[in-house]
Design goal:
This protein is of the alpha/beta class. The protein has seven helices and six strands. Strands 1, 2, 3, 4, 5 and 6 form a six-stranded mixed β-sheet that branches. It binds iron/sulfur cluster.
Amino acid sequence: MAIQELIPISCIQQLGFCEYSVFLKYIQVVETEPTEQMKIGKKVHEKLYEEFLVKAKPSTVKQMIKKSRKSKMLSRELYVKSANFGIHGSIDEIRFSPNNFLIIDDKPGTRIFQSNINQVYAYCLTFNDYISSLKIKDEIRPIIAALRERDTQKIIWKSPFNEDAQKSIVNEINRMHSMIEGKVPFLPTNNQNKCHNCSIRDVCDKFS
Ligand code: SF4
């Protein structure tokens, strides 16, 4: 699959919020102004990245994987893509340690939504696919998925990216591809609260 056909991993999260919003944003490409929450989120991400850059040294993922067998390392905003699963995106933070790889996605608030879990699982899947392609000898460390509250930087949910997690996210990604290919419809949410909090409600023909 060519890079321009890869789907942003953020769509997986949005699918859980409302399938029709993915249709409007990704297929119809509707233009909307960013919400206050989006602007705040962007600023916080930029600040964390600037702080990270003060101490960061350039390194490849392969080097980080090898070095982290002995000492802990950290990356921010690592771009990953998977032609196998047709998705791409930037991972907020990865903690490489001798025991595991912790994949972290920052979220506003402390509520745990399945859509956020799906998003971080999609990052785990893509990271796993990428490091498998590097064919690093004897690399068997597990991947752990985590959600972190954006403003306090506290981990609010953590779980191993095991076989069950992998199967469930692959199903979800395949379902999304089926929708994008027009085989399955994008259904609008029937939750009015979601519609009232939706950033694209002004351009949505299903909003009432
Ligand atoms: S307004 Fe409602 S139905 Fe329309 S995209 Fe937003 S959440 Fe979905």
